[in-house]
């Protein structure tokens, strides 16, 4: 026979268990809201798999718990299982033949950008062209690095490894390993964070914490709420519809954060002044 004291203790224990469960769920929701776009640089906003729970834009591999968004841990949540083969998505074609060169450098490239000028990047992807206008005045180190890597063909043949379609709305690219943990071997400081917001059309760096920017970046295809932790360095001026089409194709496994169903590969990336 259960005594009243035993019953009281049982009810108290059940109440405690419910509180712990609610707390865990609340923490998980908070991580989903604030983590982003996820190498030595496991990346943001923009960290795939269950990237959403691991931290939005990290560049870290999912084997760890958003360097690059999430260097970039995006909330690709970077240990993750091998993604399934991409499925056919209308508007996407087989990528150009070739492999990422995977070059590495020990230090950030010397500053060569004109901070009084704008720079234009063209991302020729297997799903269509996306053009970016980069702001060297507000994010000189970021634009300098992006232009340098473009000139080294570092981005060519690199797969965009992460897509998020719930809570945050980004496509994350720039990791030559395609794992969410790759980078160029160097890191550089954050820029342009004061008052930073991430409306549709924003281009920003994924990272794994302050000052861990590398090569991973994310493209925002729908207004997204993120803390001002990811360096915005330009705007999408053409091809937003390309990104939205990729997003319509969804994420492998039917989740809201992971490898895109579309086989999105940067066939080539060029950056020029003007």
Automatic annotation (TrEMBL):
Keywords: Isomerase, Membrane, Rotamase, Transmembrane, Transmembrane helix. PROSITE patterns: CSA_PPIASE_2. One of its GO terms (molecular function) is isomerase activity. Residues 1-28 have a biased composition (Basic and acidic residues). Residues 1-30, 61-107 are annotated as: Disordered. Residues 128-271 form the PPIase cyclophilin-type domain. InterPro entries: Cyclophilin-like_dom_sf (IPR029000), Cyclophilin-type_PPIase_dom (IPR002130), Cyclophilin_A-like (IPR044666). Pfam families: Pro_isomerase. Belongs to the cyclophilin-type PPIase family. PPIases accelerate the folding of proteins. It catalyzes the cis-trans isomerization of proline imidic peptide bonds in oligopeptides. This is Peptidyl-prolyl cis-trans isomerase. It comes from Kitasatospora kazusensis.
